[in-house]
């Protein structure tokens, strides 16, 4: 009787504590969240839940969580240490599959290689800090900033991978509700800030390479030239349409606007500094080196995704072409999700009216469909994907040319299936907006 009473007290106390915790968690998640947001997840792991007492505890745990509006997941380790560790790991990752390790595995790395990659990044950060403090005290701040820039580019590279919504954490699912316009503005602003940081970093390295240190007397000149570099070169990059494209370099045509903006900006800077200081506080050699380093760093930053592709994706990349209009935006995302190792080298358009006259879609060059034969002669193409907005005449032309070159073709379709008929009391979110 005593043990039964103590067991009841423990059970009541556990359920009471669980009720309080569940209420606090539900409150912190906010009742104003949209219905599409994931429910809070609670995980219960028992060492051995094969007796009725513990089974009742598990069911009471689950019932209390569901009563509070959450979801519960139960594990039974069964006194097996390996099973227990595995189930703890499963419980930790049950809420989301969008972590860095998951994205590395999605790129084709094994679990072991994904973990080793994270270890290498951690070791590299420690090495940079060590070199800063012991070997290169003057160059150290620049190396640290450069490492942080590379780390940011690596994070952006992984963040671009398209994952199913059910894989995302609750935070990322919530961010899906951000309007597309605000998302586009945020991306453009991030590109500008990244370029501004790279311009300052290139000037810093130019000074270090010229004087082998950063004398205190040059600090005022450094800040003056850095401010001029940002105020002159960033607008020029915008004028030359650098920010209207994807933040990538796919062809030499993508490098020319960067070169023109940096070289013209450097000439304007020399003119302004000659008028302001007669170039007495700034070395001409530094300005020339800054112009070269600016071009190199802005270009390398935009090449980062291709460099990471070559370093991380072990399987040979297959190259594809899309044939169609603006629907290619959707199918580019599809390829990124389903075939992270593949590359779309060109989008063949039936005419300018199908792509709004743009030269690039998501950083991929848009070319007339009549350029298909030269494209097949220059590159190894694994297949051509014909999109729903491709006219039948163009489709037959592409199939004929690809058939002669033994290149496979596929035709993509949009498909919508109505699963329920909306009522007046519960109108459908997509009512009246679905295509035929």
Account of the 3D structure:
The chain is built from 15 helices and eight strands. The strands form two sheets. Strands 5-6-4-3-7-8 form a six-stranded mixed β-sheet, with helices on both faces. Strands 1-2 form a two-stranded parallel ribbon. Strand 7, helix 15 and strand 8 form a beta-alpha-beta unit. The longest helix has 32 residues. The chain is flat. The N and C termini lie far apart (70 Å). The N terminus and C terminus are likely disordered.
List the helices and strands and how they pair.
Blueprint: H1 2-29, E1 41-46, H2 52-67, E2 71-76, H3 81-93, H4 100-106, H5 111-134, H6 140-159, H7 170-175, H8 180-211, H9 219-239, H10 255-277, H11 284-302, H12 304-312, E3 319-323, H13 328-338, E4 343-349, E5 360-361, E6 364-368, H14 372-378, E7 383-386, H15 392-404, E8 408-411
Parallel strand pairs: 1-2, 3-4, 3-7, 4-6, 7-8
Antiparallel strand pairs: 5-6
Strand content: 5-15%
Please state the structural category: alpha/beta
Q: Helix content range of the residues, please?
A: 55-70%
Secondary structure tally: strands: 8
Strands across the major sheet, in which order? 5-6-4-3-7-8
Mean pLDDT, rounded to whole units? 74
- Give a short account of the largest sheet: 6 strands, mixed
Rg, nearest Å = 29 Å
What is the total number of structural domains? 3
Q: What is the helix/strand order?
A: HEHEHHHHHHHHHHEHEEEHEHE
Shape: flat
Distance between termini? 70 Å
Count of runs of 4 or more consecutive helical residues: 15
């Amino acid at each position: 009787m005593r043990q039964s009473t103590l067991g009841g007290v423990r059970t009541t106390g556990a359920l009471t504590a669980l009720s309080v915790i569940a209420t606090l968690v539900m409150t912190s998640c906010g009742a104003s969240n949209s219905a599409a947001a994931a429910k809070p997840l609670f995980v219960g792991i028992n060492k051995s839940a094969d007796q009725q007492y513990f089974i009742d505890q598990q069911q009471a745990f689950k019932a209390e969580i569901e009563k509070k509006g959450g979801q519960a997941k139960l594990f039974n380790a069964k006194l097996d240490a390996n099973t227990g560790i595995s189930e703890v790991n499963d419980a930790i990752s049950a809420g989301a599959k969008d972590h860095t390790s998951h994205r590395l595995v999605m790129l084709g790395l094994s679990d072991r290689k994904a973990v080793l990659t994270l270890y290498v990044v951690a070791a590299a950060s420690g090495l940079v800090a060590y070199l800063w403090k012991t070997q290169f005290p003057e160059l150290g701040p620049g190396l640290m900033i450069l490492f942080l820039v590379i780390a940011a580019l690596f994070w952006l590279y992984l963040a671009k991978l398209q994952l199913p919504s059910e894989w995302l954490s609750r935070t990322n699912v919530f961010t899906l509700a951000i309007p597309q316009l605000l998302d586009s503005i945020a991306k453009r602003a991030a590109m500008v800030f990244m370029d501004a940081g790279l311009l300052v970093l290139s000037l810093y390295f130019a000074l270090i390479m010229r004087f082998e240190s950063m004398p205190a007397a040059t600090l005022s000149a450094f800040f003056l030239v850095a401010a001029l570099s940002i105020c002159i070169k960033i607008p020029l990059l915008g004028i030359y349409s650098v920010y209207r494209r994807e933040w990538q370099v796919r062809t030499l045509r993508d490098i020319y606007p960067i070169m023109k903006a940096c070289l013209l900006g450097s000439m304007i800077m020399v003119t302004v500094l000659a008028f302001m200081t007669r170039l007495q506080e700034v070395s001409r050699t530094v300005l020339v080196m800054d112009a070269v380093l600016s071009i190199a760093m802005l270009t390398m930053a935009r090449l980062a995704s291709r460099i990471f592709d070559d370093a991380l994706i072990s399987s040979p990349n297959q190259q594809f072409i899309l044939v169609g209009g603006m629907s290619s935006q959707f199918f580019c995302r599809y390829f990124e999700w389903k075939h992270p190792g593949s590359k779309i080298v060109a989008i063949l358009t039936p005419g300018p009216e199908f792509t709004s006259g743009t030269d690039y879609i998501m950083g991929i060059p848009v070319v007339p469909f009549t350029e298909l034969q030269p494209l097949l002669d220059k590159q190894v193409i694994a297949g051509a994907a014909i999109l729903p907005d491709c006219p039948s005449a163009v489709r037959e032309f592409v199939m004929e040319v690809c058939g002669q070159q033994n290149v496979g073709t596929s035709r993509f379709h949009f498909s919508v299936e109505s699963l329920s008929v909306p009522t007046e009391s519960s109108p459908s979110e997509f009512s009246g907006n679905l295509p035929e």
